[in-house]
Amino acid sequence: MSTGIRVTPIGSIRTPYKTLDECPKGPDENNGKAKIELLPNYADGLLKLEAEEVDLLYWFDKAPRDQLRGVSPHDGIERGVFAMRSPHRPNPIALSRVKLLSISGNILTVSGMDCLDGTALLDIKPAPRKR
Amino acid sequence: MSTGIRVTPIGSIRTPYKTLDECPKGPDENNGKAKIELLPNYADGLLKLEAEEVDLLYWFDKAPRDQLRGVSPHDGIERGVFAMRSPHRPNPIALSRVKLLSISGNILTVSGMDCLDGTALLDIKPAPRKR
């Protein structure tokens, strides 16, 4: 097993939220739209992206990584970090499935995101078709 | 934006597949079961994990990272890497939603996975409840 793995931001997520207190708890299509700015050198990777939904992976760089338990803001119950989707986890890689509304060059418009403006984007994957 | 981010394996995924040729194309509950061996020091993070399904993030360490297009094995069509869930992508973080069958200490049993035996695990997240 490798002792460390390096990942590279491929773009950034633009939202209206400038502080953590402003961020909603979880992505929600009722929270307007967000822009995904892919770095121009990755734009060719969007060829034939026609999915209705995409899974976005992004990086919560302000999250503590040394917590193994937390209290959910939804119900006040203490759980392990792997029983929550909170950003407080050993590898604070966030995952949200959002609606893909449009693509223009290297910019994607998607349904509402919950992260800080400027959050580092790690990956875009088409969501599997619904069964 | 950060120029590099370091992630750490938190465990490994045990499958019957010892070579890439043996790996099925995509996770499938018809492909038996897989074991997730969380490193013991992370086991406390499983507290109250009761989800029926979990999203597993793992690392395709053998995948090329410099490709922006590829040909799907399903239909032979060339697409951008962000239009496919193939492991060939700038950050080869794989994502699979699988059924969580049981937990015993630091070992999870889940439905069939598609990765090599010993693949590095990066995260476990409970799947959102179905709407």
**H/E series of chain A, N to C?**
EEEEEEEEE
Outline the low-pLDDT stretches of chain A. Answer: none
The CA-CA distance between the termini of chain A, in Å, is: 35 Å
Percent strand of chain A equals 35-45%
How helix-rich are the residues of chain A, as a percent range? under 10%
Pick out its properties.
homodimer; 131 residues; Elongation Factor Tu (Ef-tu), domain 3
Structural account:
With 131 residues, chain A is an all-beta fold. In chain A, strand 5 and strand 6 form a beta hairpin. Chain A is built from no helices and 9 strands. The mean pLDDT of chain A is 90. The first copy, chain A, is globular. The first copy, chain A, has a single domain (28-126), classed as YaeB-like (Elongation Factor Tu (Ef-tu), domain 3). At the A-B interface, strand 1, strand 4, strand 6 and strand 9 of A face strand 1, strand 4, strand 6 and strand 9 of B. Strand 1 (5-7) of chain A pairs antiparallel with strand 1 (5-7) of chain B, so a sheet runs across the interface. Chains A, B: This is tRNA (N6-threonylcarbamoyladenosine(37)-N6)-methyltransferase TrmO. Chains A, B: Belongs to the tRNA methyltransferase O family. Chains A, B: Residues 7-131 form the TsaA-like domain.
